[in-house]
Amino acid sequence: MLSGFKNFILRGNLVELAVAFIMGGAFATVVTATVDLIMDLVGKAGGSPDFSNYDPGGVSVGAWLTALIAFLILAAVVYFFIVAPYTKAKERYFPSPEPGTPEDVKLLQEIRDLLAAQRGGSATPPQP
Fold it and tell me: Contact at 8 Å (CB) between 62 and 48?
């Protein structure tokens, strides 16, 4: 029973998940602070970054407008400062394998060809 608990705790995925959760929480703080900074810059340019009191024709759309702008800024920050650089770095340091036949498929084809040769048959794959 204790060994099962030890295996559970030492499982690689659990540790990776815990680290990702902690890093995600810390990173959320950075992203939120960046969005607040950009919202303050929007406020400097346009008057106020908080549109909560905006109600054209008596319809309170200010809070929704503030949330929408904050969401768009958040999405832009995540995409341009995280996703795009991560994708570039991943392709640079871990390039996609070149197209072709994977090694395991090549090995299976060799086995098929050897078995066909032993039986005296043709090693050509069937045509669809």
Answer: no
* 76 CB neighbour count, 10 Å cutoff: 13
Cα within 13 Å of Cα(27), Cβ side = 11
pTM: 0.51
Say whether 49 sits in a helix, a strand or coil.
coil
What is each CA distance from 50 to 7, 45, 95, in whole angstroms? 51, 13, 44
Tokens (6 digits) for 41: 């810059």
Q: Read off the pLDDT of residues 28-52 as tens digits, 9 standing for 90 and up.
A: 888 888 888 888 887 777 676 677 7
Residue for token pair 């991943």: 90
- CATH (one of 1.20.120, 3.40.1350, 1.10.1200, 3.40.50) for 2-91: 1.10.1200
Burial of 42 (0-12, 13-18, 19+ CB in 10 A): middle
